[in-house]
Write a structure and sequence with these properties.
Layout: E1 4-9, H1 13-24, E2 38-44, H2 48-58, E3 64-65, H3 70-77, E4 81-84, H4 88-100, E5 104-108, H5 115-128, E6 132-135, H6 142-152, E7 159-169, H7 172-175, H8 184-187, H9 190-193, H10 195-206, E8 210-218, H11 240-246, H12 248-253, E9 298-305, E10 310-319, E11 322-330, E12 333-341, E13 356-362, E14 368-372, H13 378-392, H14 396-401, E15 405-406, H15 407-426, E16 430-431, H16 432-436
Parallel strand pairs: 1-2, 1-4, 2-3, 4-5, 5-6, 7-10
Antiparallel strand pairs: 6-15, 7-11, 8-9, 8-16, 9-10, 11-12, 12-13, 13-14
Helix pairs in contact: 4-5, 5-15, 6-10, 10-15
Length: 440
C-alpha cells in the first residue's frame, strides 16, 4: 500500500497530540495509529529548539523546516497532504502554499482569521483543483450527532430559532489572555478563534446560511481594566509579582506550581513540557491584565439565516463552570440539551465524560428524553472520529450527517465571528454576504 505523505505546519500542542503522534505510531490518547496508511515527512515551525527537543524526546527523525521555508519543504518532501495547525494567522499562507504545490489541505479551525483571507484561500482552492478540509470537531460529539439526526428526522419541523449559551471557566477562559490568542492580528479575536466552533455547529445543525449579524460585547474580565485585577490602596496597578499574589485566578489555578515572580504561565496541557521561547520570549511579560489586550471577552449576538431562522448567542470567558446550554425551537417542538465540564486545572487528569441528555418537547404532548452514553476521546469523543475522517477518509455516518467541513463551511464560521466583533465596534448589523465579498 502506498502511504499518504503528510507535512505539518506548526508544532502546536494540538499538532503534536492530535496529528503527529498518530501519524508516527506514538499515539497515547487511546486512539489508533496510522503508520500503515500515512507517513510524516516534514515539520515546519518558527522555533527550531522546540522542534529539535520534540524529535529528541520522541526518538524521531523527521526533517525540520523554519517558518520561511514552506515552499522549500513542499518541493523537497513532495507531500500529498499539508496540515495547517500553527497560530491562526499562519494558516492562510500555509494553505495556499499547499494547494499551489498540488496538496490537499487539512486546516485546524478556524480555517483563517478573516474574510479577506477566506477569499484568497477559496480562489487558490478553485484554481488548484485540490480540497481544503477544516477540523470542525464539534459536529462529531455524540450528543450533537443525535440532535442532528432528530432534526433530519423532522422532529422539529421548520426551525424557527436557536438559543445558544457557551461559558468558559476561569481556568480555560483566562488562558487565552496570556497566549497568542489575545492578539486579534494573530487569532482574529476570540469571536473567530473560539466562536468559529460554535457558529459552525449551529450553521450545520440549522443547515442554512447565515446572512446578518448584530452584536454587543466588550472586554470586562481581562486587560488593563479587568474586573478582577488587583490594585494597591491608592487604586494603582501592582508589580507583576504582587499582582499574581493577589489575583484570584492565579491563586486558584497556578499558585501551587508556579512562583508569582516567574513569568511562566502554562496550562500544563503538554506532558512533554516543550519550550516555545520564540512564541513566548521568557523575558517578556504576559499576563491576563496586560495593557496590550484589546479583544473582547464577552459576546451577545443575534444571527439571521437565509431561510428565516435566527440564533441568539451568548459567550463569556470567565464563568464558574464551562460548557453550553443549547435549545432549538421549531414548528413541531423544542429540543434542549446542555453540557458542563470541570477541567482539571493541572492538566494531569481528564474528567470523566458525562452522559448527554437531550429532551424533546413536542408542541402538543409530553416530553421525550434521550440519553447519549459518554465515549472516550478528547473534545467529548469527537477527536477520534474526526481524525479518522481527515486521515483515512469519511465514514458512512460522516457522509450521511455531512460531518466533514470544507472551505465553504470554514468560511461562514469565520464570517459570523468577524461580523460579531465588527458589529460590536461599529454599532450596526453586518451583512455576511457583503463581508465575504469584501463589501461589508
Amino acid at each position: 500500500m502506498k502511504k499518504t505523505r503528510f507535512v505539518i505546519c506548526g508544532l502546536s500542542t494540538r499538532g503534536i497530540y492530535h496529528f503527529i503522534r498518530p501519524l508516527v505510531g506514538k499515539n497515547t490518547d487511546g486512539g489508533p495509529n496510522f503508520t500503515t496508511h500515512a507517513e510524516l515527512v516534514g515539520i515546519l515551525d518558527a522555533d527550531q529548539k522546540r522542534v529539535e527537543e520534540f524529535l529528541k524526546k520522541e526518538s524521531l527523525h523527521i526533517p525540520y523546516y523554519p517558518a520561511d521555508a514552506v515552499h522549500r519543504m513542499l518541493k523537497e518532501t513532495k507531500p500529498d497532504v499539508l496540515i495547517a495547525v500553527g497560530p491562526d494567522v499562519t494558516h492562510c499562507d500555509h494553505i495556499i502554499a499547499g494547494l499551489e504545490a498540488g496538496c490537499n489541505v487539512i486546516a485546524e479551525k478556524p480555517m483563517v482569521i478573516n474574510s479577506e483571507q477566506v477569499r484568497r484561500v477559496q480562489a487558490a482552492e478553485k484554481k488548484s483543483g485540490r480540497t481544503v478540509r477544516v477540523a470542525h470537531n464539534y459536529r462529531y460529539t455524540p450528543t450533537t450527532k443525535v440532535v442532528k439526526r432528530m432534526i433530519l428526522d423532522g422532529k422539529l419541523g421548520r426551525i424557527i430559532n436557536v438559543e445558544f449559551t457557551y461559558n468558559l471557566d476561569t481556568f480555560h477562559g483566562s488562558s487565552y489572555y496570556y497566549r497568542w490568542n489575545r492578539d486579534r492580528a494573530t487569532s482574529g479575536g476570540l469571536s473567530i478563534h473560539k466562536g468559529s466552533h460554535h457558529f459552525d455547529l449551529i450553521n450545520w445543525l440549522v443547515n442554512d446560511t447565515p446572512v446578518e449579524v448584530f452584536a454587543f460585547g466588550g472586554l470586562n474580565y481581562y486587560g488593563a481594566k479587568g474586573a478582577l485585577r488587583p490594585h494597591d490602596s491608592q487604586g494603582k496597578p501592582l508589580s507583576a509579582a504582587e499582582e499574581k499574589k493577589n489575583c484570584p485566578i492565579f491563586q486558584k489555578h497556578y499558585a501551587k506550581r508556579l512562583a508569582p515572580e516567574s513569568n511562566e504561565i502554562s496550562t500544563n496541557w503538554d506532558p512533554l513540557n516543550l519550550p516555545y521561547d520564540v512564541q513566548y520570549p521568557p523575558e517578556k511579560r504576559r499576563y491576563i491584565y496586560d495593557d496590550t489586550i484589546k479583544i473582547e471577552d464577552t459576546y451577545n449576538a443575534v444571527v439571521r439565516y437565509q431561510g428565516g431562522a435566527t440564533m441568539s448567542y451568548s459567550c463569556n470567558f470567565c464563568t464558574p463552570w464551562e460548557g453550553y446550554i443549547l435549545a432549538i425551537n421549531g414548528t413541531a417542538g423544542r429540543i434542549e440539551t446542555s453540557h458542563r465540564t470541570d477541567p482539571d486545572p493541572t492538566g494531569k487528569t481528564t474528567p470523566a465524560p458525562e452522559t448527554g441528555i437531550i429532551t424533546f418537547y413536542p408542541l402538543f404532548g409530553g416530553k421525550e428524553v434521550t440519553e447519549v452514553p459518554p465515549v472516550a476521546g478528547g473534545h467529548g469523543g469527537s477527536d477520534f472520529l474526526i481524525r479518522d475522517d481527515l486521515i483515512l477518509g469519511p465514514s458512512a455516518e460522516s457522509k450521511e450527517l455531512q460531518l466533514v467541513a470544507g472551505s465553504n463551511e470554514g468560511a461562514y464560521a469565520i464570517a459570523v465571528g468577524e461580523a460579531v466583533w465588527r458589529s460590536i465596534q461599529e454599532h450596526r448589523s453586518i451583512s455576511i454576504p457583503g463581508l465575504l465579498a469584501g463589501k461589508y
